[in-house]
Each structure stands twice: as structure tokens, then as C-alpha cells.
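Design request, C-alpha cells follow.
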């Protein structure tokens, strides 16, 4: 497929130039307010080093917008080192967790810049050791991981629950779009809606077959793939959220496009053929889903207001970033806030119906 050749070529070029970092430099952690299944609480985020996402390293070249591979070692890492680095990051926060855990729920989010459930990326030994450590900390009530759907297997989840017991375990899957064509041709995701539903069903089965186990699925939804107009991007994100709720996903997380280095999306952006979404579009998506969905929806605010991220104007970028962060916790809609730049956004939305343009028009009459 052409998109795969192009993605692979761009990625290979980038990886050749990329400065490799040691696993010690790749692991990191932070601790912040978050909305948990149990309500408002705190989450500890830990990035563990991994050799890299198998899909990004394959001949298919990976997804058109993602460069997590540049946060990976690209070579095997010993299990003991991964476990040691996990412990090191955890130790930075453990006292705070023990104290906060007395008054609020605590979650841990383990990110491996790929699939935590893929033994090629995080070995069974490293995965189980990490989970055993978490299982021993009473204050941590929820565990969040990420995986592509092909690695969501019943036997792996059963093994995980035999370790974590009654702690809630969530698998976040990057479906990105409910439209197979968009996912295939514009994102190069490499799996179908059926693959996604199969994984969600396995997660639900584990949950319903055993009274002690709390197994949840979350979906990542990518906002504004390449070759998509602003208006189409809003409609597709909302349609995807409705679809994932209908198949039993417990919450959604919208990921608005930011321009990662060494990706196809970056190449189009450099040529002026792509632009990350307006923040106004993201507000539309949040308000619509908060009103019409029964499951929580979260909006990632990474890159907001930067040259490579979602952008309105210098006057309101910051305001909306904070308003969205607050609303992720409260799950309330974003309140009206007046800014001149909204006229430009409305003009772009209206014109995309008329001229079918997928790129941002330079001169539009404002209303
Ligand atoms: S989005 Fe996920 S599956 Fe796609 S390349 Fe990035 S890490 Fe791999
Ligand atoms: Zn503005």
C-alpha cells in the first residue's frame, strides 16, 4: 500500500538521523490530578523504556501521526533494567501516594510507547514483575495500560488479574476512527473495527465472568487525521465516540493532532497541506460528547497553543487549555468565552462545505 511505503520511508529516514538515548534517559514519571473511575483523585504516570512499537518498526511503517518510536531504545532492553527503572520512578512518588491514598483514589498509568500487552515490547517477566509491585501497594486502586487490539488476549488478561486481583485494570486502545477507510488510508493503523470489537469483548468477558475482576476498555480517538477538513474532523470524532460507547467502551480520550517529528503528518504540515485542529473544534467535540454520551470523555491538551499543536489565537489558547483541563476532571461542558478568532474558525467550517478543501484556506470572508 502506498501510504505504508511513504510512512516507512519517512520513518526510516528519521530514525537514521535520530540520536539514540539510553533506557535510563527514556524512563520518566509525573503525578497529577485526574479523573478516575472512582472519582476525582491522582494519577501517577510512568513511562517505561521499550525497544519500540512493533507496528512502527514493521514494514508497514506505523501510524502516520505517531513518533513514539523516537522515545524508544530501538534495541532489546534487559528485563531487570526495565523493572529497576520502573522501581526508581515509583520510588520518587511512593510517599505522596501513601499519604494521598488515605483521602483519595490513586491510579497508575504505565506507558511503554507502544503496547504493554505485547511480549515483544514488554516481556512477560517485566510485565508481571511490574504488576506484582503495583499489587503490593494498597493505595493504588486503578491500573491503566495501552495496547493495540491484537495483543489483548484472554489468557494474558487472566494472568494479569491473577496478579492484580481486585484492582481495576484498564486497557486503552487507539482505535482513532470508527471509519475503516480513514483508519486504514489516512492513519495507517493496520487493524479493523472487528479487531477492535474483538478486543473490547475479551475485556468485557473477563469483567463479567469473574465477580472480583474489574476490567475496562478505553478508546483513544484521533482528532483530525491527514486529508480531513476541520468540519469532517469534528463529525468523525463525535461519530467515533458514539460508536465506541455502543460497543461497550467505558471511557474515551480524544487526542487532537500535534505534529510529531519524522511522520507523514509532519511532511504534509511542512508543505502547508495540513494544519492541526482549531481549539474551537475541540470544544465542539467535548460539548457534544458530554451532552450525548453516558461515558466520560477526556481531551488531551498536549501541544495546545504551540506551533505544532491545536491553536486558536494568542489571546485565548491558554484560557481554553486550562478550561479543558478543568473540564476533564469535572466532565462539565466548556462555557462560552468570546474571542475574535472564532469568526475565522466559523468561516473555515462553512467554507469546507462549499469548496471541499482539506487544507486551511488562506483568505476567507468573515461574517
Ligand atoms: S499510535 Fe500506537 S500503534 Fe501507532 S505507531 Fe504509535 S505506538 Fe504504534
Ligand atoms: Zn482567540
Amino acid at each position: 500500500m502506498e501510504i505504508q511505503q511513504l510512512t516507512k520511508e519517512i520513518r526510516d529516514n528519521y530514525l537514521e538521523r535520530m540520536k539514540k538515548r539510553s533506557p535510563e534517559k527514556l524512563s520518566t514519571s509525573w503525578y497529577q490530578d485526574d479523573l478516575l473511575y472512582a472519582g476525582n483523585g491522582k494519577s501517577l504516570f510512568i513511562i517505561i523504556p521499550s525497544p519500540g512499537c512493533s507496528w512502527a518498526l514493521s514494514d508497514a511503517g506505523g501510524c502516520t501521526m505517531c513518533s513514539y518510536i523516537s522515545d524508544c531504545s530501538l534495541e532489546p532492553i534487559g528485563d531487570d533494567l526495565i523493572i529497576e527503572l520502573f522501581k526508581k520512578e515509583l520510588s520518587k512518588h511512593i510517599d505522596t501516594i501513601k499519604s494521598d491514598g488515605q483521602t483519595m483514589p490513586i491510579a497508575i498509568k504505565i506507558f511503554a510507547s507502544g503496547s504493554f500487552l505485547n511480549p515483544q515490547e514488554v516481556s512477560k517477566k517485566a510485565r508481571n514483575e511490574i504488576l506484582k509491585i503495583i499489587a503490593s501497594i494498597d493505595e493504588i486502586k486503578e491500573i491503566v495500560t495501552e495496547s493495540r487490539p491484537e495483543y489483548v488476549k484472554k489468557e494474558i488478561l487472566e494472568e494479569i488479574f491473577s496478579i492484580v486481583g481486585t484492582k481495576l485494570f484498564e486497557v486503552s486502545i487507539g482505535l482513532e476512527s470508527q471509519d475503516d477507510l480513514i483508519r486504514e488510508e489516512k492513519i495507517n493503523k493496520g487493524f479493523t473495527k472487528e479487531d477492535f470489537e474483538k478486543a473490547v469483548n475479551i475485556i468485557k468477558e473477563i469483567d463479567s465472568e469473574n465477580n472480583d475482576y474489574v476490567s475496562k476498555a478505553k478508546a483513544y480517538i484521533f482528532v483530525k487525521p491527514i486529508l480531513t477538513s476541520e468540519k469532517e474532523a469534528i463529525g468523525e470524532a463525535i461519530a467515533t465516540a458514539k460508536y465506541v460507547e455502543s460497543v461497550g467502551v467505558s471511557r474515551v480520550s480524544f487526542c487532537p493532532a500535534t505534529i510529531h517529528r519524522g511522520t507523514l503528518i509532519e511532511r504534509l504540515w511542512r508543505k502547508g497541506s495540513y494544519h492541526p485542529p482549531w481549539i474551537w473544534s475541540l470544544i465542539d467535540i467535548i460539548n457534544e460528547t458530554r451532552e450525548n454520551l453516558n461515558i466520560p470523555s477526556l481531551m488531551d491538551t498536549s501541544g495546545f497553543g504551540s506551533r505544532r499543536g491545536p491553536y486558536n489565537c494568542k489571546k485565548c489558547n491558554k484560557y481554553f487549555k486550562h478550561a479543558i483541563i478543568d473540564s476533564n476532571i469535572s466532565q462539565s461542558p466548556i462555557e462560552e468565552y468570546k474571542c475574535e478568532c472564532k469568526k475565522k474558525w466559523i468561516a473555515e467550517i462553512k467554507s469546507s462545505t462549499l469548496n471541499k478543501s482539506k487544507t486551511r484556506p488562506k483568505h476567507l470572508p468573515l461574517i
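Comment from the thread starter after seeing the answer: thanks! The chain has one domain: 2-268.
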